[in-house]
Amino acid sequence: MTGLIQVLGITFGILLILVGILESFFFRNQRFHRLFLIKPEDTETVRMWVFNLGFYNMIWGVGAIIGAVLLTGPEPAAGQALLLFASLGHVLLGIILVLSERRLWASAIAEALLPAVIAVLLLA
Fold this sequence. Notes:
Strand content: under 5%
Helix content: over 70%
Shape: elongated
Number of strands: 0
C-alpha cells in the first residue's frame, strides 16, 4: 500500500507544481483566463495575488513529494505527517474554493479529490 500512496503523493505534488507554474507565470495567457476566471483587462490587477498563489501551490507540491518519498525512509511517520498535512490542507482548500466561488466547482473537485484519496489511504 505504501507504494501506491507514494505514487499518488508524488503525482499530487507534481500536479500542484504544474498548477503553480501556470498561475505564477502564465496567468496573462488568455487560454487560461477561463480556468482562473480572469478577464484580460484584469491581469495586472490580479498579478500580485495570482503570482503568490502559484508559489504557494508549488511549495505545497514540494512538501507532498517530500512526504511521499519519506514514507519509505528511516522516519516514515514524518513522511506520513507531511503528506497527510498537504493532503488534508488541499481537501479543505477545495471546500473553501467552492464555497467562495461556486463556478469553480470543477476546480474544487480537482483540488480536493486526489488528496482526499491519499488521506484516506494514509489513515486506513
